[in-house]
Design a protein that fits this description.
CATH topology of the largest domain: Ribosomal Protein L4, Chain: A
Strand content: 5-15%
Number of helices: 7
Order of helices and strands: EEHHHEHEHEHEH
Strand order of the largest sheet: 2-1-3-6-4-5
Largest sheet: 6 strands, mixed
Radius of gyration: 27 Å
Number of domains: 2
CATH class of the largest domain: Alpha Beta
Distance between the termini: 17 Å
Shape: elongated
């Protein structure tokens, strides 16, 4: 599969890049995508939620009324979950939500996500460009030239570029990511995936197995 390489001005350079069929043209596996996205979201959870149980509530443990003869239900101490301010029954406790997922399943999920984007013509290749200083306007103009304004755009780099990152972090719909950090969630969450020309070769090496 071949795609044309565009300039940041939106013009075609006349060059093309080859997208490997075993990365961008596979039979998508929806269950692998589900598992990979589930793990990604689970790993982001802090798991620091906590509520106090009755043994952690500060208060007297004295029986608040006699067992019989009051006409009401039996009651123990004031820390009972039945009373206002009492402990909570089976409340949340800190826990780790992360779980293991096989590497081959992750690769399959990301290939499947890239295949969906390729089928939807939502992948664009931009020639490598440098920025001498951070300038948000440059990224905005590139979005407009590539007809990706008002859309979520994922910009994939081959190597870290501080100026590109600083120029885009103030834009709500733009996310910059390294090709080595590419994940299924970000691919599917973006309306347009823009690869720098140098990142395609790295992507083919990482996922072309």
């Amino acid at each position: 599969m071949k795609l044309a390489v565009y300039k940041t001005s939106g013009e075609v350079t006349g060059r093309t890049v080859e997208l490997r069929d075993d990365v961008f043209c596979i039979s998508p596996n929806d269950h692998a995508i589900y598992l990979d996205v589930k793990q990604f979201m689970a790993n982001k959870r802090q798991g620091t939620h906590k509520s106090k149980e009755r043994n952690e509530i500060q208060g007297s443990s004295k029986k608040i009324k006699k067992q019989k003869g009051t006409g009401g239900a039996r009651a123990g101490n004031i820390k009972s979950p039945l009373f206002r301010g009492g402990g909570r029954v089976f409340g949340p406790v800190p826990r780790d939500y992360s779980f293991k997922l096989n590497k081959k399943v992750k690769i399959l999920a990301r290939k499947s996500a890239l295949t969906y984007k390729a089928q939807g013509s939502q992948i664009v290749v931009v020639e490598d460009f440098l920025m001498d200083s951070p300038k948000t306007r440059t990224i905005v103009e590139m979005q407009q030239n590539l007809k990706s304004e008002n859309k979520k755009m994922l910009l994939v780099l081959n190597e870290p570029n501080k100026n590109i990152y600083l120029s885009s972090r103030n834009l709500q719909g733009v996310k910059v990511i390294m090709v080595s950090d590419l994940n299924t969630y970000d691919i599917l969450n973006a309306s347009s995936v823009a690869f720098l020309e140098s990142s395609i070769e790295a992507l083919n090496e990482n996922f072309g197995q």
